[in-house]
Each structure stands twice: as structure tokens, then as C-alpha cells.
Amino acid sequence: GFTDHVALGNEEWNPWDADEKNELAASQQRYEANLKMIKHARSHLEQTSLRVQIWGKAAIGLYLWQHIFGGHLEPADVTAQWREGSQKAGKTYFSFLTGPSVVPGYFSVGAEHVVLVLNGREPAKVAHATQWLRFAQTLVETRQIRRVAVVLLGSEQCNNAWIQPYLKRNGGFVSLLFVTYDYAVVNEEDIFQWPLGVATYRSFPVVEPSWSMLHDPRSYLCNFLGTVYKNSSRETLIEILKQDGLDKLCWIAAREQWQPQETNESFKNYQDALLQSDLTLCPVGINTECYRIYEACSYGSLPVIEDVMTPGDCGNSSMYHSAPLQLLKTMGAPFIFIKNWKELPAILEKERKMSLEEKIQRRKKLLEWYQNFKAWMRQKFINTLENSFLPNDKG
């Protein structure tokens, strides 16, 4: 109730009268607008048919959430014990949890459907991943959750047989598996190839393309910063660069031993090299697919990829015959693929003759392709979960 103050008799006249009225009307409007927003949000939540909680227990989860989903995490501090975020996408409300405090049985399970992000790179990691799978299995058996999907950082030689018994197709409880590298059992039905992405375990950031990244001339034709293993094609690469004095035109920093942790300086050097080079050389390591490919894309530096299969059990699946890197090739990645580093001098010669305008167009194409690739992976991930998890489906 708001009564007008009128200057009559002994009644005090209120000089702030008009202001009060305006303030009241404004707050009334704000209240109604908030109410509308809440109602709108409610109806939106009612439209979400699916609630999915993602448990990020491997660094690859940050690539999924921050790079592919464009999601945020609170707190922003990467060393925090517990970080979370949420997002509505398609018909699904996603929440994401990560950090050392996310431990089986010590946090509240906030959805009927769960995506477990696990590391299966080596035996110790597999043991840890198995504990999480057993925890999820118990939740399924006690009906606390209904369906489970797994995003797996697989072994670089594709030795992932340990996860097979957990898949529904083999009598287990995992409905869907998204796995890195060219794992031969990928079938596009319940097993899908997933991109390795950038090295989030080294805190590689989400890079926003800038005007200068697109338009500025770059100081180097190419870069390679990395470990050179004895008797590897990387040795050949360095020799070829030195032979023709091409190493003077490129940013080359080779080391003999791999270092898991970057120093601030070495990491800054690496990012500068990507930003200052037109091409990023990607020799094979234990697997052909490496973080470097995606990191180069982030900075508009075109990957030159040694397109050969590495030893192990990765390779052509019944679905595709374009291994290695069948996911990237299927998605039309605009990279330079070579079979031998002897092809490099001719590529660099061509590079020297390219105009800045041509390079700008190529950068635009690469950055656009990478944006579209991430958007496509996000959409595919959401569609696959919805098709599998929504109740109108056979599940």
C-alpha cells in the first residue's frame, strides 16, 4: 500500500514523493521481470527431458567441457579441490564435476544418467578407472542411476580390452563408449571415436581467435618444439631441416627427454611458437594423433602431419579405412598430410612463395574448420546420449 502525501493542513509535504513513486514502480517492474524469468526458466527445465552428470576424472574431461561445450567452471582456480559447472544443451541439462575431492561415494549423485570421463592410458590409470566403473555399477544395481556412458582416454597402442566386459553389448552396464585414437572396434553404434584434444593437463587454454592472429605476418615458416627420440622419424625431420638450412626459417627446439610438466617459460615459448609460425610440424610419437595438432589449430598454425600408422593395435575399423586419424579425416580437416619428411623442403619452398593474403585465407579456413569441428563433436555427443538415454528409446 502506497498513499499519496498531499500538502494539506498540518500534514508534512514529502519532497521525495515523486522519486519514491518511481522507485516503487521500478522495483515492481523488476519483481515482475524476475518472476517472468523464473517461470521461463522453470518451463525451460520442464522441457529438459534428460539430466546428465559428467564426472571428470581425467584431464580430457576439461577438453570436453571447456573446449567442446564452451562451459565454465567454478571456482576458476585450476588447483581447486572441487570445481563444477552446468549447461542446458538440446533436451539435456548437463552438470560437470571435477577435482581431487570428487571421490567415489563422497559426493551427491545429482542425475539419473552419468558420463564417466576416465584415463586408461597405462595400468595404474586403468586400476583407478576400474574403481570408478565398479562404483557406477553399484549405483546402477541399486537403481540410484539408470544409464552410464564413458569417455575414455585410451591407450596409445589401443590396448583397451580391459573395458570391453563393462559394455552393455558384452553383458555389462555401460551404454556408450567414446574413446580416443583409432580403436578398431569403433562402430558408430555404441562405440565412437573421440578427439584427443589439447593438453589440458598442462593447462592449455581455450584460445579466442583475434584480429592479429588472423592478419599479422608470422616470423617463422614452421615450428617443432618437442622430444626427439633415438632412431625415430623425428631424428630424420631434424636432419632434413638442418641439411637445407631450413632450421633457420623455423622455430626448432628439440630435447632428448620428454618432460611431463612445463615450466611457465617453456609453455609460453611453445604458445609463442604456434602463434609465430605458419605451419606446425607434427611427427608421429607413440601414436600419430597428438595434442600438438589441436593446439596448432587453436592458434591458426596449419598442422603438417606425418600420416603413418604407429605400432600397436590401432588401425582400420570395419567402419573406416582412413586410419590413422580417421576422425579428423572424416571431418575434412584441412591439414597437410605427408608420408615422409623428405617431402618437407618442397612444402616449405611453396610456403616461402605464398602471399600474406593467401596465408590469411588459409588461417580463416583452419580456424573456422576447428570451430565447426568442436561444434559438430558437441552436437554428436548430445544426440548420441539423447538417442540412447531418453525413455522413448529402447535404451
From TrEMBL:
Regions that span the bilayer: none
GO cellular component: Golgi apparatus
CDD domains: RXYLT1-like
Name this protein carries in UniProt: RXLT1 xylosyltransferase
Annotated Pfam families: RXYLT1_C, RXYLT1_N
GO biological process, one term: protein O-linked glycosylation via mannose
Domain of life, per lineage: Eukaryota
Boundaries of every RXYLT1 N-terminal domain copy: 52-195
GO molecular function annotations of the record: ribitol beta-1,4-xylosyltransferase activity
Domain RXYLT1 C-terminal: 201-390
Organism this protein belongs to: Phainopepla nitens
Keywords: Transferase
